[in-house]
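Re: beginner question about structure tokens

> Can someone show what the tokenized structure looks like for a real chain? I only ever see the sequence side.

Sure, here's an example I had lying around. Input first:
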Amino acid sequence: MDGGPLALDACSLSEAVRNKEISVTEVANAVVSQIEQKEPLIGAFLHLDHEALLERAALLDQKIAKGEISGRLLGVPVALKDNMVTSDMPTTAGSKILEGWRPPYDSTVAKLVISEKGIVVGKTNLDEFAMGSSTENSAYKVTRNPHDLSRVPGGSSGGSAAAVASGMSTLALGSDTGGSIRQPASLCGVVGVKPTYGYVSRYGLIAFASSLDQIGPFARTVKDAALLLEVIGEHDSMDSTSILGERPKLLEREALGVQSLRIGIVSELVDNCSVEVKERVLAAARLLEESGAKVDTVSAKAVTLGLSAYYVIAPAEASSNLSRYDGVRFGLRKDGSSLTDMFLTTRTQGFGDEVKRRIMLGTYALSSGYYDQYYGKALATRQLIQRQFDEIYKDFDLLLGPTSPTTAFLVGEKFNDPMSMYMNDVCTIPSNLAGHPAISVPFGVDQSGLPIGVQLLGPAMSEALLFQGAFELERLAMQYLEDVGV
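And the corresponding structure tokens:
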């Protein structure tokens, strides 16, 4: 990615295309070249169509030449996680049960990207049905971290994070149910945003846990993440959970700084991470304070219950959502001696081990005699977390903590240890349970050269304030790297 259009950030690239300094075809050719070079090593994509990409680029160039076209993402490459339906490309959710399925419609976010003249690069790999923290649970391939091919990129949106980190796409979209945007963003050294629940339409997102899922952007810079979130963040009548009203302008927050912002360091999150990650969080806190923010430590004991509550609520919702994959209406179908046998054979062969594990766990939690004991208590715990956040945000504007407790771990290291794998989401899950926004910003690397992400959290619909803090955090991260000579 030395020079050329892919070295530009999305904002600069779209401006260069608009000013006819670079053609969309040049951008598309650069994407193809980068993918041909890096994709065999990284495995970020499940579906690519270079011919269609180049055809769309040529069409955009023709319209630009006639002065007929404009768009906030004009000529910018955007990759889509393969749980967002697209009518012109297969959508599998990383599962054999949907292998080769071509949806009859497009997700709202895909439509919005295309309407703003972004060029869709392809569909990225993910843990099957977005269930995982390493992108090792895909039915098709393992995605690898561009910074160290022996390590995972995080998950479940690891393909999207790796595509942006490696320069195979300028921007990407992922989904975040328990940290599936922010955790891979941290491990791959890019920016990742989970918006407020309902901020972005979920229409056309293959559901994992409907009360937790949210779509958000990956980018190399906070500014690019703000641009993409401005594009996809709008009310959608096709999504009953979509928040009414206009969204704030995020790009306008770039130069406002953090003077007088009240920022709380969540002690329970910091205490759950490695020494090097903790050092970066505390360094970020110190620099934010030097920039004028009022920084203090805050206790949020309820967040320690988040992991337990999440792994009851999310599997329960998944067991319901995934019941539609029965071999009758769409997707994989395996014949059996009876209808029941066909259901059993199809789902046994179609779902991977992690998905089966969560379906069984969720079904058990919802079953008669256990609903109140497990699911009811998990919902009560979720409300407790929400109430504690509400109390904390009376005294603080934003919260600060680690995104992931560690840097990227080795491929296969935690694959056969589900509890160890689930612990990777301990810092991100609380925001999903509360429905609040959060953003992961790169803050240097550890001694092995692996990226470390620092996370800012905010109350519901605080995206403008969150980005205001993130812009400053990004600037301070660059200052920090210069100071330590990295």
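Each token stands for a local structural state, so reading them left to right follows the chain. The chain has a mean pLDDT of 96.
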